[in-house]
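Example for tutorial group B:
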């Protein structure tokens, strides 16, 4: 029996995990002797950022939830590292699987490799080349420590080769593309949520998210919120699911800020509801790496509220425009968007070709199973 332990802690990781778990179920249905379990660090502890995803995807309940919650980078990572190490010493899986670029990813990797347990990194090789980003540090350290690097794009493969890691790399395709292909049609069939947010069916609106640590520093967040108000006043309604971190900063540090009447602050959305409103939106304003891709997959123009992105392919294809961490370039970018009239069908096909054939989860599961056999 091959025993696989996935370590997750944040929304994008649950989406990736769903595709991989679905592939492992196919393995078991085919007679393979593979057991998968889940460790949830509790990095995202709000139900709308955590439990709802397990419910929607039908992912098995985590074997353990560390419930670490939020906190400073070092403190949070240290709590995870200590607790994960204790769990790994007890269960001794054959392979540990980590996803993406969060503190949960780095803590899981460090705990496993120091116990000589093989580590597979799903979504390896992404680089923003901005070492001020905590996520960039997590990506680089994880890739250099892990045993199997599952790269979602050829750009990621090339990044890893430049760092001398090509012997550990496998191109897998993007498991988030799998998830969108699998769930988008189901999400579109769900009840129209817009009325509950005060929007009319067919009304133009933007979908906005802000959550990264650098963008929730009070001065910067105030600037970004002002930009969202500008869009609401000058262009269209803005639907703004507010991350718990962002809401806490608004409540504690910028209480005097007031949203424009057409800027609708709502609670975080589950994955299916997010896909529902994303498909109906006119465009996206975000600092989320995952939402940049989901927008591209669904043919929605994205304006990224950062100074760079790890998903450079989306920028090269024109479906993603970097407007800066202060969104200073947003007005000009929106005018460009007006001229281009959205994302055309040819560009959508090119985006799809970048991220695989929708079977990345199977490729990942196959590679992880082989890693376990080779390491036995």
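The residue assignment follows.
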């Amino acid at each position: 029996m091959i025993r696989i332990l996935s370590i997750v802690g944040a929304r994008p990781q649950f989406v990736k995990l769903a595709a991989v778990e679905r592939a492992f179920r196919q393995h078991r249905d085919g007679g393979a002797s593979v057991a998968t379990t889940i460790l949830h660090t509790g990095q995202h502890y709000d139900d709308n950022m955590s439990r709802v995803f397990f419910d929607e995807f039908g992912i098995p309940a985590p074997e353990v939830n560390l419930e670490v919650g939020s906190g400073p980078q070092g403190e949070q990572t240290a709590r995870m590292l200590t607790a994960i190490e204790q769990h790994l010493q007890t269960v001794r899986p054959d392979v540990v699987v980590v996803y993406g670029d969060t503190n949960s990813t780095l803590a899981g990797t460090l705990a496993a490799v120091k116990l000589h347990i093989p580590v597979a990194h799903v979504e390896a090789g992404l680089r923003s080349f901005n070492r001020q980003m905590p996520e960039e540090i997590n990506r680089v350290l994880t890739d250099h420590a892990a045993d199997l690097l599952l790269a979602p794009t050829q750009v990621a493969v090339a990044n890893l080769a430049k760092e001398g890691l090509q012997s550990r790399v496998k191109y897998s395709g993007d498991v988030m593309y799998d998830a969108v292909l699998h769930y988008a049609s189901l999400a579109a069939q769900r009840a129209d949520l817009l009325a509950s947010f005060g929007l009319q069916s067919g009304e133009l609106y933007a979908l906005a998210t802000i959550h990264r640590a650098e963008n929730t520093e009070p001065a910067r967040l105030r600037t970004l919120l002002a930009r969202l108000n500008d869009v609401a006043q000058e262009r269209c309604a803005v639907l703004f699911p507010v991350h718990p971190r962002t809401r806490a900063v608004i409540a504690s540090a910028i209480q005097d800020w007031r949203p424009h009447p057409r800027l609708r602050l709502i609670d975080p959305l589950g994955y299916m509801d997010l896909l529902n409103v994303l498909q109906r939106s006119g465009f996206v304003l975000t600092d989320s790496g995952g939402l940049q891709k989901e927008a591209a997959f669904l043919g929605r123009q994205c304006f990224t509220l950062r100074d760079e992105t790890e998903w450079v392919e989306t920028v090269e294809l024109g479906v993603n425009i970097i407007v800066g961490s202060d969104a200073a370039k947003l007005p000009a970018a929106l005018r460009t968007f007006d001229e281009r009239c959205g994302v055309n069908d040819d560009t959508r096909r090119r985006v799809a070709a970048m991220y695989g054939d929708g079977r990345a989860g199977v490729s990942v599961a196959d590679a992880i199973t082989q890693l376990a056999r080779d390491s036995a």
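The longest strand covers residues 2-8. Compare this with the pattern of hydrophobic and polar residues in the output above.
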